[in-house]
Design the sequence.
């Protein structure tokens, strides 16, 4: 049995649930508080405290990008995480670029819209949506850069892969919180395609 330690409002957990739904894998969900410090029993599984963690019959794995790679490999889904070394490198390149550079600016806007704080996680009481209008011009260059890096036709790299699973929660949050993607046509088309997939609805998306 697969067990996913997650939280409905975690975008990192959501990307894993998206892939689990694409793979048709049954799993148990166990909710972990987003407030810090994390519970001691959870820190025993993941000393860094990040959400999510996957437990596959005693094999415990943290870090959402690593979990995406593991699940695709576990199911021998070369279409989602290619076996060919160069095709796989392109997926890894995007995942690394996204995690190390491109994700953080989007989260600046999400934090004020959704009320994220380190101490309490997401809380409507901490939301400051009026600040989003000032943040959007500051992150426009990053959004345009991401738009230039994704492919046309409704997939990051030309066909659906785990790279799309990683990006979908960010596009979902952008759309749901009113970030206008129309000036970024590839991202706008990608959001249309990814959020229309049956597995996306099955992943139980939440902010």
Sequence:
């Amino acid at each position: 049995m697969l067990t996913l330690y997650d939280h409905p409002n975690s975008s990192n957990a959501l990307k894993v649930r998206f892939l689990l739904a694409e793979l048709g894998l049954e799993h148990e969900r166990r909710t972990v508080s987003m407030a810090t410090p994390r519970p001691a029993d959870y820190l025993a599984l993941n000393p860094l405290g990040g959400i999510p963690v996957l437990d596959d019959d005693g094999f415990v794995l943290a870090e959402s990008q690593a979990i995406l790679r593991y699940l695709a490999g576990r199911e021998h889904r070369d279409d989602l995480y290619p076996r060919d070394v160069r095709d796989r490198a392109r997926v890894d390149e995007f995942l690394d670029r996204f995690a190390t550079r491109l994700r953080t600016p989007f989260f600046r806007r999400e934090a004020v819209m959704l009320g994220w704080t380190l101490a309490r996680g997401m809380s409507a009481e901490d939301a400051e949506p009026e600040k989003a209008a000032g943040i959007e011009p500051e992150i426009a260059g990053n959004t345009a850069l991401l738009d230039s890096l994704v492919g046309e036709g409704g997939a990051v790299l030309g066909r659906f892969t785990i790279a799309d699973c990683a990006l979908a929660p960010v596009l979902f949050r952008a759309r749901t919180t009113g970030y206008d993607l129309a000036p970024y046509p590839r991202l706008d088309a990608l959001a249309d395609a990814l959020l229309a997939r049956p597995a996306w609805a099955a992943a139980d998306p939440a902010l």
